[in-house]
Amino acid sequence: MKLIECPRDAMQGLPDFIPTATKIAYLNALLKVGFDTLDFGSFVSPKAIPQLRDTTEVLAGLDLTDSPTKLLAIVANVRGAETAIQYPEISYLGFPLSVSATFQRRNTNQTTAEALADVATMHELCERTGKTLVAYLSMGFGNPYGDAWSPEIVTDFTQHLAQLGVRVVALSDTIGASTAATIAPLFSALIPAFPAIEFGAHLHTTPATWREKVSAAYEAGCRRFDGAIGGIGGCPMAADQLTGNMATENLLAFLAERGQEPGLDLEAFSRARSAATEVFALH
User: Fold this and answer.
1) Could you tell me how far CA 189 lies from the centroid of its own chain?
2) What are the structural domains, with CATH classification, of the chain?
3) Where would I find the Pyruvate carboxyltransferase domain in this sequence (predicted)?
4) E-assigned strands of the chain?
5) How far lies 21's CA from each of 58, 190, 274, in Å?
């Protein structure tokens, strides 16, 4: 079971800038917990995501000593990827490849064809520098724009990624549109069809629907889950009203119910949760 903590997603839509030192202290607390991966920042236009304009400074302040956690940075284009690969501390580059053409344009200012071309280039960059590209299939469970969506379309995108050699694909809810009825069939079909790909679930949810969503993905074979302490965050490019991330606390509760050991330092998690309360209470 892999748990990916996503403070980047929790922070990016907040209107008030979180001081760099505050970000660093919070991320360093998270690095002590033992998450598989920390989605810590992004190399994107500061005009698009002003909250994360200090990612380079934040990275310089992180204490990776004795932490098993790997770092993931989101990039929106090849230029961002070229910047991210310069940092040996970063293991993963994440790119939001949208199943919705409208959202691809809103999110990265690209057509689908341009985004797919960038994925190919970024994957090659990662292979050459010892990093791994994570392709997030955003709007993976539907979209609010009226763009075509079906399991077959998601499968076609995945097939393209598989042909490129992409090894990690996260189906991303983005706006909280998913239900157990859409989550379970997708993972049940994709996981056996593409055995070379590690599939993840990046689910946005309301407090009332988290359990059914996690359960559907888990029972269908998914073992890689993104979460954010407190369920904070959402994509500012997707909608005016943000739907929160999957709360990490809920993921841990779900695993405990099934007798699964997450391998985390729960005391460190408690301290990080307290730090999150202080960080996000400022906003």
Assistant:
1) 21
2) 2-280 (3.20.20.70)
3) 1-270
4) 2-5, 37-43, 70-75, 90-98, 132-138, 168-172, 198-202, 224-227
5) 8, 41, 17
